[in-house]
Amino acid sequence: MRARRSCLAVPGSNPRFIEKAQGLAADEVFLDLEDSVAPAAKEKARENVVAALRDGDWTGKTIVVRVNDLTTQWTYRDVIDVVEGAGDRLDCVMLPKVEDASHVVWLDTLLTQIEKAHGLPRIGIEAQIESARGLVNVDAIAVASDRLETLVFGPADFMASIGMKTLVVGEQPPGYGEGDAYHYILMRILMAARANDLQAIDGPYLQIKDVDGFRRVAGRAAALGFDGKWVLHPSQVEAGNEVFSPSQEDYDHAELILEAYDYYTTVERRGAVMLGDEMIDEASRKMALVVAAKGRAAGLARARTFERPTME
């Protein structure tokens, strides 16, 4: 899976922001043609995005373009112009406001036609869940195409769709004093993603100057198992990369479990064994694989290794 700890949103109508994004440490950059672009600027934004994909240096980043939602008059031309113009430089197309599996099928079909016509490599899809209807249909959406790589939570539109009484995206609504108002939503998306080997990405935190607040909210999603979160400002990139990476201690411990378990099950041919004061077994190996994979994707290096028992 591609690294998506930090997914940086960049308006396609702002060439200065697009240029700056190339030098930031975000895992993913998505050039936006939807909400951050005014209707009168849509066509010019497409041109900017194609030029940036063709001429920019996006080395080491997952590159995505978010098109307009399927109910608008811009979507089909977004896909055609961007993919025909720079599809060989593009990893995924993000489709916002997905409410039904047919939305993903439509995009899959159009991408297939363009790829065949132009001899382009296969392009993935990110589906954004932004409404009550989308959440209710998320299981069907998650299996709508084998191009799907990611389910993305879109909190602002979602909050509006369910009538949530707040104007602050990402924080708990006033009056909700116990628990987490977003827990069910996040878990619902996460279950659909994991059941179908997809990544799950949390949406943005709009208070861009409140980095501590971003860390707190991102930590909630990371604790559940989300792979990353949208970032809207350079100050959030470092925080996102850190929050969605395991600590050095946890990474070392995970690699130690994997190495020790491999030794004990293959050399000594034992199942449940002791690693120091900790019992490890097959379930331990599976959990360690998750943490180790995240650490490797983050570029962490091991600080300790397993010492095999001395044979007497």
Name of the CATH homologous superfamily of the largest domain = Phosphoenolpyruvate-binding domains
Q: How much strand content do the residues show?
A: 5-15%
Catalogue the unreliable spans: none
Write down the overall mean pLDDT: 92
**CATH structural fold name of the largest domain:** TIM Barrel
The overall strand count is 10
Percent helix = 40-55%
Tally of individual helices:
12
What sequence of helices (H) and strands (E) makes up the elements? EHEHEHEHEHHEHHEHEHHEEH
In the CATH scheme, the class of the largest domain would be: Alpha Beta
Shape: globular
N→C terminal distance: 43 Å
Radius of gyration: 21 Å
What does this protein structure show overall?
- There is one protein chain.
- The protein has 312 residues and is an alpha/beta fold.
- The protein folds into two domains: 6-243, TIM Barrel (Alpha-Beta Barrel), CATH 3.20.20; 248-297, no CATH class.
- The protein has helices spanning 15-21, 42-55, 75-86, 101-118, 132-136, 138-142, 155-161, 183-195, 211-224, 234-243, 248-266, 282-297, and strands at 6-11, 28-32, 62-66, 92-95, 124-129, 148-153, 199-202, 228-231, 273-275, 278-280.
- Helix 3 (75-86) runs parallel beside helix 4 and helix 9 (211-224) runs parallel beside helix 10.
Features of the shown structure:
single chain; 312 residues; alpha/beta; TIM Barrel; 2 domains; 12 helices; 45% helix
